[in-house]
User: Fold this.
Amino acid sequence: MDVKSGPDMDCSIQETTALTFYVNGKKVVVPNPDPETTLLHFLRTNLRLTGTKLGCGEGGCGACTVMISKYNPSTNQVKHLSVNACLAPICSLHGLAVTTVEGIGSIKQGLHPIQEKIAKSHGSQCGFCTPGIVMSMYTLLRNIQNPTVEDMESAFEGNLCRCTGYRPIIEGFKDFTKGSCAMGKDCCRNQTKLNNNDCGQTVVNGYDSDVQECVEAAVRFRVFCVHAFLSSVRHLLYQWKLFREQLSSNYFTSVIEELVRVANASLNAIRGPIYVSKPERDLRDRCLAERMQSRLALPNTLASIIADEPDLSRRKKANCVMQNGDQQTDLLPTDSTQDPIFPPQLRTRVFDDQYLYYKGERSVWYRPTSLDQLLELKAVHPTARLIIGNTEVGVEIKLKNMHYPVMIAVTHIPELQRVVSNADGITIGASVTLAQLDQTLRAAISTLPEHQTGVFRAIVEMLRWFAGHQIRNVAAIGGNIMTASPISDLNPLFMAAGVMLHVASKGVEIRTLKMDENFFLGYRKTAVDSSEVLVSLTIPYTQQNEYFYGYKQAYRREDDIAIVNAGIRVLLEDSTIRDMSLAFGGMAPTTVMALNAMKQTIGRKWNDSFLNDMTGLLADDLPLAVGSPGGMTEYRRTLCVSFFFKFYLTVQLSLNKQHITNGSKVPSSYRSATDSFQKESIKSAQIFEEVAPGQPVEDTLGRPLNHLSAYKQATGEAIYVDDIPPYKDELILAFVFSTKSHAKLINVDPSVSLTMPGVVDFISFKDIPGQNMWGPIEHDEEFMASEKVVCMGQIVGAVIADSQTHAQRAAKAVQVKYEDLSPIITIKEAIAAKSYHGEPRVIERGNLREGFEMSDHIIEGEVHIGGQEHFYLETNAALAVPKYEDGEMEMFVSTQNPAETQMMVARALGIAENKIVIRVKRMGGGFGGKETRSVIYSIPVAVAAEKLGRPVKCMLDRDEDMLSSGCRHPFYGKFKVGFTKDARILALDLELYSNIGCSLDLSRPVMERAMFHCDGCYKIPNMRVTGRLCRTNIPSNTAFRGFGGPQGNFVSETYIADIAAALDMSPIKVREVNMYSEGDLTHFNQKLENCNIRRCWDECLQSSEANHRCCEVAIFNSENRWKKRGISVIPVKFGISFTAKFMNQAGALVMIYRDGSVLIAHGGTEMGQGLHTKMTQVACRALNISMSKIHISETSTNTIPNTSPTAASASSDLNGMAIKNACEILLERIEPYRSQNPKGTWEEWVTAAYFDRVSLSVSTFYKTPDLGYDFETNDGRVFNYFTFGAACSEVEIDCLTGDHKVLRTDIVMDVGTSLNPAIDIGQIEGAFTQGYGLMMMEQQKVSPDGFLFTRGPGAYKIPGFGDVPIEFNVSLLRSSFNSRAVYSSKAIGEPPLFLAASVFFAVKEAIRSARGDAEKSRIFQLNSPATPERIRMACEDQFTKQFPLPEEGSFKPWFVEL
Assistant:
C-alpha cells in the first residue's frame, strides 16, 4: 500500500447541508437533523407512517424493515437494500430513497401482490411482524426478478414471527419464485414456450396454454395450480388495459369465461378432503404445495375477478425490465403510490460528494468525503465513533445508555470502499458491507482455481449464518474487526488466515499489521491506535495442499451470535504439517490462538496419533475457568476439540481421496461428521374436511377464510396502541425499574431528571390516589415499590416527558439508593429456604402403596423445564386519555383482560369502575403475557394522566418488557414410578415445584393445571401428585400458552421415556400400553367422553409411517457415529375451560341497524388468533346472512362488562355461544316478517321489524354448564371437554456440536368440526413452533443475583424461518363432533403447543443411540430446553470426558437454572 494521508486540512468545516431524502416517492427535507434520531422514529413520529413497527430496537426481529434505494453513479444502477429502520440514523439517508410498507400498497389504492399473497396464504395472524416481512420480500423482488426458493428463504433470515410458525409465509411466497408449483419441475412455468409473450408465459388465444395441463394434474392429484390461473387472468387484464381500444371487450370476456370454466371444473374435481394413499406418497410431494388455496372458491365472472383482485388493473405486465439501471420486477404495479419509482432527482453524484455536518441535542455528525478529511477529523476527535451501518453503535445508544458526542460516517470515503485483486489476495475497503464482501468473494470463488479460494469459501459459508440481510446490507467488514467482539464470526477466520490490515492516521504513511495473536490487546481493544483509521484489509489466497475451514455453533442457526467459533488452517506437504493456525472465538475476552498447539504441530504427521495429542494440547491452550462470563465452560471447551476433530476428518478424507498414505483412514461411520448443514426447502400438507356439499355459499362457517384484518396488517394500516395518532398535549411515560433483586429502598431522587430537556414530571407510589396493592387472586404486589423491591425490573417510578427519548433518558438518570437483602432466585434455593407460597396442593387417587408393591420395576427421576419469554412482537403499551368530566378516563391498552385492567385502574385512582373505559382494538400478540401483567404498566400511565390532566402514553422497549413482565413458569419435577415388565404403569408419586417469582399472580391455577395434566394421555390407577409454589426474587411469572399444561405433560413423557429405556422397549409401545380409552377416569376422576386420543394416535402413526421410519432411523444410526437420528410420537390431551369456575362466562351484544348491517361486541380480544373472524362466521351462520354485513369493531368495557380474559383457549367457546344465542333471539324476532314476505330481502325484513317497533339489539350471556371441582374430595368436573392430538417428529443431531434439525413432523389434531380450518391449522402450526422454542431453544439466562442476561432477540432466541420442519404435515381429525361447544367445534389455541415435545423426545432418542455407541447408560436426565449444550454434553464421549462437570455448589455459575 502506498497511499498517504494528505496535507493538513481545516477540520472546523461547519457547513450544514439540509438533509434530503425521499420517502415513498415524496421529497423530505430536514434542515438540521439530530444524529441520534433513527429512521424508525422519524417515520413514525414526524411522517406518521406507522406501518413500520418497533419490535426490538436492536435489529433482531425485522419488524422495522424498510427498503432503502441508492444510486451508484459508477454503474448507473440503483441498488435496493432491506434495512432495519430502528438502527438506521436519519443522518445516513442523505440522497437515498426510502420505501415503507405504505408505499407499495394500501386497501384504498390496491394491494401489492406480496401484501395480497401473505394475507391470502394465512401468513398474518397478529400482524405486527407482517409489514417487515412484506418489505423483506419486496426488496428481494426489486433486486432479483425471478428468485429461487433459497433466495426467498434467505431474505427472511432477519425477520421473526411469533404467531404463524412461518410455514404459510414461506409457502405463500413460493409463488414468486422459480419452480414452486405443486407440479414441481413439470409446472407450466417450467415448460418449453410455444408462443412466448412479453410475460414469459405461453399464451394461446390470450391465456396460458399450459393451464389445461395443470387442470389435468388437478383432477389426477387433487391439486389446483393457482399460479397458472391467476397469472393468466392478470396477463389478460394487462392486455385489456393496453389494447382495449383496438380489441373488442367480447374477445377478452370470452377468454376469461373459458378460464373460469376450466378453473371451476378443476376445483370441482378436487373438492373434499385430501387424503393421500400410500402408493401416491411420492406423487404427493409434487402435488400438494398449494392445497390450501385449492379449497377457496374462485370467482365466476370477470367483474368478480376484478373485485377480488382490486389492484390487478394497476399492475405492470409480468416481466422484468431495466429502466436506467433501476431493476423492476414482474409483480410490481405501475401505480406510483404502490411502487415509488426511484426519484430522478437522486440520480446524481451531488449528494455523495457533499461534506455533511449536523448538530443535534447531544451529538454532532460528520460525513467526510475524502480520506484526508477523515484523518483530520480523527486527529481532532480521537474518541469519535466511526459509523457505517450503525449496527453496533445504534444498539449501544438505545439499549446500553451510551452517549457518543461525535460520530463520523465513513461511508463515502473512496479508499474505504475499494475492492482490488492482487498477487497476495483481495484487498477489501474497510467500509465495504458484509453483503458486498459476500458478493465479491462468491465472484472470486466462481472464477479462481479452487485451491486459491479456501479462505474465501470459509468466509462465505460463515456469512450464511451472520445476522440477517438487514444487518449484512449495512454492517461493514471494518466495523466487524474494530469492535473487537470476542465472539465475532469473522475475526477467527481472519486471524487463522493471517489477514493483513492497512491503517492510516494524519501525517503518517499507511502502515500494515497482521491479524495475529498480538492484534487484540484486551476486551474490545485492538493494536490500532485511537488516532488511526482502518482503511482496508487483504484476505490472502490459499495454496495447494492448504486446508482452511471455519466453524460456528450457536443456539439458533440463523441470525445468532456464536457460543464458540473457530478458524482452522493447515498447510501440508504430503502428510507432514508445515504450518498451522488455530483461532477461536468465545473462549476468552478476545479472539485467541492456540499458540502452543500450533507450535507443537509443525513437522508432525497428519494421522490419528497426532489427533490424540492435539485434543490435549487444545485443552491446555484454551483454558476456561468455571463460572466464566457466558457460562457453559465445559461445553465451550468441548466444542473447540470437536471443531478440530471435524477439521481433522475433513482433511483426512481429502488425503485418502488423493491416496496419500499416512497410516490413517476415516471410517465410513465417521464421514457424515464432516457434512456442513444444507438448507432444504420445506414441503408440507394441510388436510381437512370441506363443508357439506349443500351448505349455502353465503354460509362461511367451516370455510378456510382469511383473517379479517390480514389485508390491513399486510399494508401497515392495522392500528395498534402506539399507532394511534397523538392527542393534543400528549405526553410519554418511561419507567424507572429496580436494578436490585431484593433490597430496601433507601431513597429515590428524581431531581436531576426533572431538570432534563422535555421532562414534565416524575411519579411514584406517593402519587397513587387510591390503593397501591393489587393481584388477580391475592393483592400481594405493589403497582410501584414503596419500601423495598422484590425483583429486578420492579417499577419504582416513572418519568413523564414530551417525547419517548426525553422520558427514557430522564428515567435512567433517576438516582435510587438501595440496601441489599439476600435474594432467592431458583427453585432449588427456594426449596432449601422453604420459601413457599401457601400450602401444597395434592391430588391422590387409588392406593399408592399397593401400586408400588405390585410393580415389577420402580424407577425414580427428576427433570427441569425452563421458563419461556412470551416475546409477543408488540410490547406492552397503554394510552390514557382523561375526559375532564366526572373523573372519567378512556384507555387504549394492549391487554387480554380489559375488565381486570378497568377494575385495577379504578382501584388505583380511587374511583368507580363505571368511570373507566378500556378499549382494545387488537394486540400484536399476547400468548397469556398480557392477561394480568399488562395491568402493572397501565396503572402508572393512568395515574400520570389523572395527575397531569393530559393524555399519557407508554410503549415499552423490548428489553424493558423482557426485564419486567414475567414469563412461563419454570418447573422442577421429581417422580417415582412403578410398572410391570410389559410397561403398564401401576403407581406414580410425583412432586411438582414451580418458580412463581415475587408474587402469586396466576401461579396457583397454573400449578393446578400442571397437576391435572401430569398424567399425560395415560391411565395410572394409583397416583399422587403434589404441587408447591416457590416464591423467589424474579419478576412474577404468569400465564403463557398452555398455562401449566405443557409442564405437567413434559414430566409425564419423561417418565414414559425412562420406562421405555429401562425395559429396552419402543417408547411407542409403552405409550400405547398405557393410553386412555373411552370412558376411563382421570386421576382427578373426570370421565373421558368422546375420547379421540387413540384415533389421533393411530392416524398419526399411519400417515407418518412411524413404524417403518423407526427401522430406517435404526439403520442410519448403525451406519453413523457422529450424526444420529431419532423419531418420537407424542400424544396430547388438553382440558378446555378455566379451572376457576366463575371465569367460564361471556357476554355479547348484537345490534342490527336499519340498513341491515350488524355490529357485534363480545368479551374476547383479538391478538392474532382469529377470534373476531371466527365470531363473525358464527354470526353469519346463526343469522343466515352474508358475512359482509357483519362487523366487529373492538372490545370495550362500556359494551360488554365484567369480561373474562381472552385465555384458556375457551374464548371461541364462550363468546361464540353468547353470540349464537343473541343471533338466534334476533332471528326469532325477525322471523314473523320473513314469513310475511318470504321473497323479501334481509334489509326489507329488518326495516319491517324496525317500523313495527321491534328491538334489533340483544345483549346475551353464556356460562359453561356442569363445571365444578373440589380438591378436598377429588370430585367434580374440572374441564368442559378435552382436545386431543398426536405428533410424530424425526430429527438429526450432530453429536459433536449439539446442533440439530427437524427432518419431518406430522400432526393429527382433533378440533371437532372446525369453525375455520385455515385459522385452526395456523394455530396448530404456530403453537407447535412456539412449543419447539420452549423445548429446544429458548433458554432464559439469569445471574445468581437475579440479573437477566436475555433481554432481547440478540441474546434470547425464538425459532426463526429456518427452524420449520423440512417436511411439515398437519391433518385435522375427520368426523369429530363436540356437543359441548359452539357448532361442534373445539378449542385449539393451547393444546398443540406440547406436540413440539415430539422433537425433544426424538432428540433424546438420538442421544440415546450416541450414548449406546459410547457404552453409556440409556437412562439419563435431559432438561428442557434441549439446547446445543445439553445435547452435546449428553452425548458423552472421549471429548466430553476431558472436561468433567464440577460439583454443584463448588463455584458460582455465570447463570442459573430457574
User: Anything to note?
Assistant: Residues 1-12, 188-228, 238-249, 265-338 have pLDDT under 50 and may be disordered. The radius of gyration is 32 Å.
